[in-house]
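Predict the 3D structure for this chain.
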Amino acid sequence: MALCGSAFAGCTAKEAAEPEVSKAPVLLSGVELDLQNTIFDDFVGGINSDLWYIGKQAWGNNNGGVIPENVGYTDEGVLVFTGRGGHYAAQEVSGVGPVKDGSLTGGALISRFLTGPGRYEVKMKVLPRLGACTALWVYAYDASGENGPENHEIDIELPGGKTKGTQSFNSVLNTNYITEEFNISQDVDLTANRGSDSLYSVSDGEWHTFGFDWYTDPGKVVYYVDGIVTTVSDQFVPSLQTRLWLGVWFPNSAGFVGTADFEEDYLQVDWLRYTPFKDQPCKEFLPAVNSSQVAALSEYPSAPSAYEEADKISNGDFEHALAKEENGWSLTQIARPDAPAVETECRIEAGVGRDGSCGAMVKDRGVLGQNIDCVYDGFTYELSFDSKCLSAEGKGYLRISYRSEVGTLKSETVNLSGGEWKTNTVSLTAPDGCTKVRLEFYTEDGNTVFLDNIAMRRT
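Done. Predicted structure below.
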């Protein structure tokens, strides 16, 4: 589908200047957008199989790959990629990589059309959890390059921060390659890039626009977020025709985008646009597409789906928690010399939840805990859970700890009481400097509390 126009003004050669970091993106002098050949997709009505392949493949050795079951759309035309993290245990889908239980699977679209030098833009809500890589990239692999295999690639990847050792959505990673050995990667702090006095995080649940301009004469890649240039790179600039990729996947290394300590969350896309440049040369090349690594037409979503706001708690209903050891919950107890076995004071068990379902039991000095990452300054949530004490006089507690990378910023305690099941609701607001929250349900000697249907969603 073609559409003239772009998200940025000032596109004529006469008005153009050299792109600068922390400024609005402008075209290089003499370069024009080929508006008549723009490809635009707002995904209204679904995924156009004339434009897109759906990925069904894996790269790396410790994930489940990208699968068509994780690609869908809504009535409003929002493209949705489901990312199933390391705590996913329902086994409703299967991976195509080394991990087969459905965990560590994402989704991806791959263009049927070829791309080259031009302007690439996408408006999206990133998947806001560590361990899952939200990415827009162009890619071409030539096994018969003049000096050996060539890997021509331009990437926007989130979260950033790998070069600093602290991954967050306050950073974005911009990388361009011509081979696996010859590449340059720039890790950009978005708050500093914008000169902002407050944290600028793209995981705030709002729509953000990401893009890059790819030039070959002269070779240059200009990356930007929300209309501000983040990086200008003139090294290792690709020159082959490519295919455009968009999606979410799970890297092997925790040092890249962190560890996927969550169950399920979403990357949402409003629209995507590719506008070629006029008179910017590139080498004709046909990136291979293996039919076994893309979905059959029968695997494309045939109807829109409804997506509930993502629950930040892993296995909060406990129904599948027993199927997997890494289910998100820590079952511990307060240490003491005469402490009994942990499972006598804290366990997940069938029949102890509400209406006889699976639930959690915390007794005496047991502690049931879970960490939720990517909780940043000012983010608000509603935490809900069902609880019941063993007796009407019994009591238990929930401790909510807001943490930074160096320690606890503040804590709140919620009292639990009553011998009948009831639903509790707590509002959470992250203080400045917060990066994560820890929830701990605990009791004291002589008390037992049962828990079920624990959920935490953005508000």
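The chain has two helices and 26 strands.
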